Amino acid sequence: MTYPLAVEPFQEDYSGHLSWSNIGNFTLRVASLHAETHGFGISYMMEHQRGWVLSRLAIDLKERPRSLQHYSISTWVSRIFRQFTERNFEFRNAQGENIGYGISTWALIDYNTRQPVNLESLPDGGFHEALLDEVPPIASYSRVRVKEPAMVLHHHCGMTDLDINGHVNSIRYIDWVLDALPMEWHNTHAVKRIEAAFGLEGYGGDDLDILVEDAGENRYAAEIKRCKDGATLVKVMLFFD
Predict the structure, then answer these.
(1) What is the pTM of this model?
(2) By CB atoms within 10 Å of each CB, which of 25, 64, 100, 196 scores lowest?
(3) Distance between CA atoms of residues 21 and 171, nearest Å
(4) Nearest to 21 by CA among 46, 68, 62, 57
(5) Which helix (H) or strand (E) covers residue 238, if one does?
């Protein structure tokens, strides 16, 4: 299913392109709309006390739309394997030309048991009837390890960082990694691909360290750790020109 969009004022970053945070949020919004269409969106979640949890995300773009430009995001589910489902995305510009792809991995959590739901046992076959056997030409997820971080950003999680579940919004983690890089770097480089592996949840009041290391080959590896216990919440990989 394809969703037409446009870069509205205040959705851009300082370069005049659609910001990475909005790219991430609109990508997740499209996923939610598609799930709702097939009976497993927010309405189903509220009724059955369940929620989709994002486990992995990768977005790979050749270019980002600029101010007032139209673009579209298409999404489909290509695979279900027990407790996880794989959702894909394609991005196109106003001319209908491909400008990138995305992949994501999700789990459905039962709020009462706090355990993942077996997606193969959902009523009416779950997403099976909506599966498209089409895998986008995008590289799979990387393995992220940070040993000697050269850049560190500290963040105290506040109200505006949280989503409706009281957890830190998934895309906020990506914002912090981008903010850990100096403005001088952003002025001379362009991020082309972002990967995130989500682990533990962050909450309001948490103090976090964002640790970034040059991974070579035009990549930065990052880990976001909770200060009080040293737990890793999220791992991120940036690819840039």
Answers:
(1) 0.94
(2) 25
(3) 6
(4) 57
(5) strand 232-240
- What is the residue extent of each domain of the chain? 2-130, 151-240
Q: What fold is seen in the domain 151-240?
A: Thiol Ester Dehydrase; Chain A (3.10.129)
* Cβ atoms of 188 and 235 closer than 8 Å: no
CATH number of the 2-130 domain: 3.10.129.10
Write out pLDDT tens, residues 23-59. Answer: 999 999 999 999 888 888 788 777 888 888 999 999 9
Q: Which residues contact 55 (CB under 8 A, 6 or more apart)?
A: 84, 104, 105, 106, 107, 197, 198
Distance, in Å, from the CA atom of 153 to the CA atom of 174, rounded to the nearest integer, reads: 12
CB environment 162-173: b (16+ within 10 A), e (fewer): beeeebbbbbbb
The two beta strands, 115-116 and 98-110, are antiparallel
Residues 6+ apart with CB under 8 A from 97: none
